[in-house]
Amino acid sequence: MDARERSGISKRLTYFCRNCQGGARLATYELTKSFLLHTPSSSTRSHPTPLWIPTLSPIPASAISAIIGDLASSVIKVPREVITARLQTDHYGGQGATFAIRQIVGTEGISGLFRGFWSTTARDAPFMVILFTTYEKFKAYHHETTIRANKAIDEMWVPVEPRIPTFKSTLYGGISGALAGYLTTPFDVIKTKIMTQKLVHASSSMADHTKSICRQAVHTNESALRNSIRIYQAFFVGSVPRSSWWFCVCSMFFPIYETTKEYLSVEHR
């Protein structure tokens, strides 16, 4: 098998895993949120929400659902990211994904595929919380202003949840993604260092890697302000392209997400 074939297999594996992890995250997110909001959904009509689950407002419900959804997707996501990170850093001298999996399992055991699980969760759980709660805030603002405008025109108008236009969904989603991507860049830096360290028995502690980054950034002959800037730069390296990437991704994701939800809700009426 030549390098091109190995690359093609690695890409197909990555796409397949991304689709699976995305489906697991969103399905768990929507199911959990429907329970926390005590709103019926197509998956909960036959299983009503237990009375012991408290009813939450949309923002806390979105935050908790985002965390649970991310944990569900991490079972698929972390092994994929471990393999991808090793391949991108030429950890195995140009070998493919299959070789990487064999090497990881052979030298580190199954747990090697889940190296950095908690550091990845520490990065992605806040990302999902910021992403979805910010987007929900934008939606709440849109709904509030739309309802207020309709009431001003017609006092007899019955309030309903307004449909969010595609343009606004694109804008709100993009801003939410860029904000989440920027603020979680330090977690991404630490996660990458944990996943790509070469020593099998090296420390995987987030605290140890955080201290290491700070030690490398600080220069004893520099002022406190200059060292603070160096530490910021060390933890936020790549934050601009990361934010730009997530702006583009989320500006496409949320309109599709809203349209799909609307279509499915109509289909199940």
From TrEMBL:
Solcar repeats lie at residues 57-141. It is a multi-pass membrane protein. SUPFAM superfamilies: Mitochondrial carrier. Its main location: membrane. Keywords: Membrane, Repeat, Transmembrane, Transmembrane helix, Transport. The keyword Transmembrane applies. GO terms for cellular component: membrane. It holds the Pfam family Mito_carr. It is found in: Membrane. InterPro entries: MCP_dom_sf, MCP_transmembrane. The keyword Transmembrane applies. PROSITE patterns: SOLCAR. Gene3D superfamilies: Mitochondrial carrier domain (1.50.40.10). Belongs to the mitochondrial carrier (TC 2.A.29) family. This is Mitochondrial carrier.
